[in-house]
Write a structure and sequence with these properties.
This protein has 58 residues and is mainly α. It has one domain. The model has no long low-confidence stretch (mean pLDDT 77).
Length: 58
C-alpha cells in the first residue's frame, strides 16, 4: 500500500481547488461550507490502496 497525499480517502489538492472555486472571496458561513462539502466528499472518495495520485508517486 502506498502512503498517499490524501486524507480520509479524498485528494486534498482536488478538495482545495474545488473549495477555492466555490468559495474564493465569498463570506461563507460554516453551515454553507458543510452543506457543500459533505456531498462533494461522498462523490470524490477513493480507495487509496488502489490509487495514488501522480503528484505523490512521481
Amino acid at each position: 500500500m502506498y502512503e498517499c497525499c490524501c486524507d480520509y480517502g479524498i485528494c486534498e489538492i482536488e478538495f482545495d481547488d474545488a473549495f477555492r472555486e466555490k468559495f474564493d472571496g465569498a463570506d461563507a458561513e460554516p453551515g454553507d461550507v458543510a452543506y457543500w462539502a459533505l456531498p462533494w466528499i461522498a462523490d470524490h472518495m477513493r480507495d487509496m490502496q488502489e490509487a495514488a495520485c501522480d503528484m505523490f508517486c512521481g
